[in-house]
Design goal:
Length: 724
């Protein structure tokens, strides 16, 4: 009986691991390196002719159309800068619907006739690229004979240098669209939705007497993740294939002591964090907060909030950087929402606000009743948006992996409600009784509103169980998963805000046109909005069973799984919303739905195949070896006339039978006849594959607790979670 070498060797290797020495001088402060690899506004101002710079800024800051002459000048300056920074290649970076980042690299140098090479980079090369689109998901948007897709420069997100010891690359953030102009990525709809939201937010601001600068939406993502030693990671084919453990018995010590959250960060992890922050700083990504999370081996990073589009790009870049630097430090960074069953999962809270250069943050309560009236109008827009499109918000975070987390008493439930805090909720409660309040203030300038209490900038109370919570100057959407791009949720938030602000602007414009006094109109509209949409406001415990029942009474959707949520994307109201605001055409909406289904099925299929392989080729052989050892022992005892106890052998044998039955059933489910359409396939994955996997896992986890430790092939939960 040979012991299993892989796992035991991994433990020895982890013990012997020596972390790399820093490859930079810690004296070089963040101030010196911040943005050093970014083709930033400052760099552009230095390197571009004045008129070109001004024209480009108009595109970036006021969404004006890009002048082709400008593109040539920018390309030339960008190329010179990149060559000075040691770049040999440039890449259009885009965000296809795989959820990952894609790059197509091209060399700067073209051979010229005389045997030398010349660096070339024209405006049209900067502005447009043409990667083959056929291997990216398109949800039926494109026939394969028309495989062409285009990348287009997004001037609003800065270009940057990606370092590599073998040569640097100039990276240019781009949108990715089909030949016929349909969005094939996450960035295009976000830019469209942001623009739609801005138009209507500016209408509202004009009604309040401002001459507003362009409104943008801001996004501050909090990223949770796990770190696992690479030695263990490579010995876990399930982590390698699907990003989560498909096997593993609960460790004797879980997170019940609450001793990890905000605890001292292990030295090795701290070194990793310092190293990543340095890399992020070079890229101009403002990493700020870092701390331990609830589960052992779990951590969080939160960069400062930025304009949604830049924040979304930076978030993708952050994940790539974390993966790379973790490997440098002998660890693997896990972004899956639920890498370990029975242990807290990871989310990506999306902090959202909107604002502009002249009025600042529009979700910040002001000092005067007039400011507060405006603040309440924007808050009411959020309430309307969340109430009308809660299902759509839920769909924007739907994935096979996030299903393991939502509603599991560690993340908000699938019911999308909004938390205002006692103070703000009280204000809206008063507003619901509108006429009473307004009569009091009639005749004064800020009718109704000036009778309201002063609003605190920090509401003090926090509600960690709400999926959409007001936190003093922003809303925090807590349902997004750690693996997801924030672009999807931010697109949805901007789209539903566009509708709400459009509605509000139209109502107020009409009232004023009909001769109503503005403050009266505001007061009445707020009353109307809270009366109509107040049922989405919930300040209680979102994890409780009572809330499930109450939410049902209030008519709030409770879309528990991805397959419950995805149809929202093609519901009549959603299709109309996206069409009306130019975010998705009907066919684009349908393609997103199809891609969501396909992605769901593929993720689960990979897990099912991994479960089958590991169950059959790792767990079963270990169990059989142990069974043989026990049988040999029984025979040996009998041979010398000792009374042999058969209990253990029988127990293990029964578990082996269960495992084999489970494996057989899973194999049958995997090979079962394939459904006609994407929905059928996804339903099969949910109703046949997931339960069959659970049976195999239960048997295997039982065996983990019974089989001799030196025979067990897979690194255990306690090893992966506690040895760093
Ligand atoms: P907490 O854990 O208390 O929620 P963190 O500091 O971890 O807070 O993260 C808060 C996130 O919210 C950060 O990314 C921060 O930049 C962001 N944020 C702060 N103010 C705003 C705002 N006005 N709009 C959007 N995001 C914001
Ligand atoms: Mg946080």
């Amino acid at each position: 009986m040979s012991a299993n070498p892989v796992r035991l060797q991994a433990i020895t290797d982890v013990e012997a691991y020596v972390p790399p020495a820093p490859d930079f001088s810690p004296e070089e402060g963040p101030g010196e390196i911040f943005g050093s690899n970014v083709f930033s506004k400052t760099v552009m101002q230095k390197r571009l002719p004045k008129s070109i710079f001004k024209s480009l800024m108009a595109t970036i800051e006021k969404s004006e159309k890009l002048d082709p002459l400008v593109a040539d000048a920018v390309a030339s300056a960008m190329k010179d800068w990149a060559l000075e920074k040691g770049a040999t290649h440039y890449a259009h970076v885009f965000y296809p619907l795989t959820g990952f980042t894609a790059e197509k690299h091209d060399g700067f140098f073209d051979p010229v006739g005389d045997g030398t090479a010349l660096a070339e980079f024209a405006g049209k090369t900067l502005v447009q690229g043409e990667p083959d689109a056929s291997s990216f998901p398109n949800g039926g948007l494109r026939n394969t004979f028309e495989a062409r897709g285009y990348t287009g420069w997004d001037a609003t997100s800065p270009a940057y240098i990606l370092e590599n010891p073998y040569g640097n690359t100039l990276c240019i953030p781009t949108v990715f669209i089909s030949m016929t102009g349909e969005a094939l990525d996450h960035k295009t709809p976000l830019l469209r939705a942001q623009q739609a939201m801005a138009i209507h937010a500016e209408r509202v601001l004009r009604l309040f007497g401002h001459d507003p600068a362009a409104v943008v939406s801001y996004c501050g993502p909090e990223q949770e993740y796990f770190l696992v030693d690479r030695h263990f990671f490579v010995a876990r084919p399930d982590l390698l294939n699907s990003g989560r453990t498909l096997f593993g018995a609960k460790p004797p010590k879980g997170q019940e002591f609450d001793d990890h959250y905000f605890g001292a960060i292990p030295a090795r992890v701290l070194a990793f964090m310092a190293d990543t922050e340095r890399e992020l700083f070079k890229l101009g990504i403002p990493a700020k907060t870092r701390h331990n999370e609830v589960a052992p081996g779990q951590f969080e990073v939160a960069p400062m909030f930025e304009a949604a589009n830049v924040g979304a790009d930076h978030q993708q870049l952050l994940m790539t950087t974390f993966k790379t630097i973790a490997r440098k430090h002998g660890m693997e960074c896990l972004f899956h929402e639920k890498p370990f069953e029975g242990v807290n999962g990871s989310g990506k809270h999306v902090n959202f606000s909107l604002g502009n250069a002249t009025e600042g943050n529009l979700l910040l309560p002001g000092d005067t009743p007039h400011d507060n009236a405006q603040f309440l109008v924007f808050c009411a827009a959020v309430i309307r948006a969340v109430h009308q499109y809660g299902g759509l918000l839920r769909a924007s975070v739907a994935s096979a992996s996030n299903d393991h987390r939502l509603g599991a008493n560690e993340a908000p439930p699938a019911i999308i409600s909004i938390f205002l805090g006692d103070q703000l909720a009280g204000v809206f409660e008063q507003l619901a009784k509108g006429p009473a309040t307004s009569s009091k203030g009639r005749g004064t300038l800020q009718i109704g509103v000036d009778t309201l209490p002063e609003l605190p900038t920090d509401p003090g109370d926090r509600n960690r169980t709400s999926p959409f919570a007001f936190t003093g100057n922003r809303f925090e959407f807590r349902a997004p998963g750690s693996l997801q791009s924030v672009a999807g949720p931010m697109t949805t938030i901007n789209a539903i805000m566009a509708e709400a602000l459009d509605h509000i602007a139209t109502k107020l414009e009409t009232a004023v046109e009909l001769g109503a006094e503005f403050n009266t109109a505001v007061q009445e509209l707020l009353t109307e909005l809270i009366t109509e949409h107040g049922s989405a406001v919930f300040n209680g415990n979102g994890y409780s069973d009572e809330w499930q029942a109450e939410a049902a009474e209030r008519g709030l959707p409770n879309l528990r799984t991805t397959l419950d949520a995805l149809p929202e994307l093609i519901s009549e109201p959603a299709v109309q919303l996206f069409e009306r605001y130019g975010i998705f055409s009907e066919s684009e909406s349908h393609s997103r739905y199809e891609i969501g289904l396909e992605h769901y099925t593929q993720s689960i299929m990979v897990e099912a195949l991994s479960t089958l392989e590991i169950g059959q080729t790792s767990v079963l052989p270990a169990a059989v070896r142990y069974q043989t050892e026990l049988a040999t022992n029984v025979a040996a005892l009998k041979a010398v006339g000792v009374d042999a106890d058969m209990d253990l052998l029988e127990e293990v044998s029964a578990m082996i039978t269960d495992l084999r039955t489970g494996i057989g059933a899973l194999r049958t489910a995997i090979h079962a006849g394939h459904a006609e359409d994407a929905l059928g396939e996804a339903t099969h994955a949910q109703t046949a594959l997931l339960p069959a996997m659970a049976v195999v896992r239960a048997a295997a986890d039982g065996l983990e607790a019974a089989v001799a430790d030196d025979l067990w092939p897979l690194p255990t939960y306690q090893e992966m979670l506690y040895i760093l």
